[in-house]
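Worked example 2:
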Amino acid sequence: QVQLVESGGGLVQPGGSLRLSCAASGSIRRINAMGWYRQAPGKQRELVARINSDGNTNYADSVKGRFTISRDNAKNTVYLQMNSLKPEDTAVYYCNIDGSTGWSGFNSWGQGTQVTVSS
């Protein structure tokens, strides 16, 4: 079984920065795509950023130029550097990792971390 542990959320003023981390553990043979999603109150969960095994990335238009996704394959960890934060970035952020164990594929979600942007 694969488990994800997120960290790095919190309260920040507009224009500030935060860095989220998500570490995967368990019987992992291979990790394919790693991504971050967010869900604001009353809204659907949406993709924020995603990175493939070859390092290719894609971002939601609303965060392009402000957020950067990266991964450390040796640590099975994905990061989200968030700069120039805006109040509309306030949401619960979830990591998502797709890969395979020695027996089957998996698609796992983190527990979520709250990001609040407010003065």
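The mean pLDDT is 96. The chain has no helices and eleven strands.
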